[in-house]
Amino acid sequence: MGLLHKGVTILAFDETYDDQKTVQSFTHETINLKNLHHTNLFCEEDSLRKIEAALKRRTQRGITFLGSGNYHYVSSLLLKEAPKPFTLVLFDNHPDMDNGFEQKMLSCGSWVSYALKTNPLLEKVVMIGPTSIQAHFRPPYSVQIFPFTKQHHEDRNLVLSAIHTDMTYISIDKDVLDPDFAETNWDQGVMDKQELFSYIAAILEEKQVFGIDICGETPVSPAERFLPHASGIIRKNDAVNAEILALCLQAEPRHVVGA
């Protein structure tokens, strides 16, 4: 099995990836979306259509970097590229299943519900790692959640057994990770990065993966990027992004001097 396409695309809603030198060292295509309006957290219909058109024109398919978790709704567009019925495997500290999209614009908090209701090929969502599930939350039958706590993590084989289709899509929000391994602009979970890598490797070995996306960056303004704290965030996120990328491409991690 494995990843069907090994192209890399960076979606530039802002300057987030400009200083991630290790990620930039991999062959990739950048799509400039900085001039689109009303895309942060919520996306208005006109901008959503433009994003979808830009994705259709891209030459590199396989792995897509989305930016901060505020743009996670782009995953719902990438899921439309499924060649046959599939399972979405989502690593996220939040379920992203607010049903408010029916009255409002599509958002980073509603895209999973939106995809389930609009994508006929999406058979199941397997959600791994959230710590923020509310007690009253009852997912639909097509969603299986493996929540994490500091004391309880799910067995890899149990997670794999929940994926019933051969075709799979992997979406990774780095807020599922403990802050030791990534820093995001949302509250974070407790997953160790090696545990995340283990799940990804197992899925790639057992399933056909038609796409992977990665988000969870912390936007840093140009005025802050050289401050010690901000540059530390950039280096940390760049490092884990590159490790995920190398794992998915089955390549050796690259080291960039000064990164």
Automatic annotation (TrEMBL):
Annotated PROSITE patterns: ARGINASE_2
A biological process term (GO) from this entry: putrescine biosynthetic process from arginine, via agmatine
GO molecular function: agmatinase activity; metal ion binding
PANTHER family assigned: ARGINASE, ARGINASE/AGMATINASE
Family the UniProt entry places it in: Belongs to the arginase family.
Name of this protein: Arginase
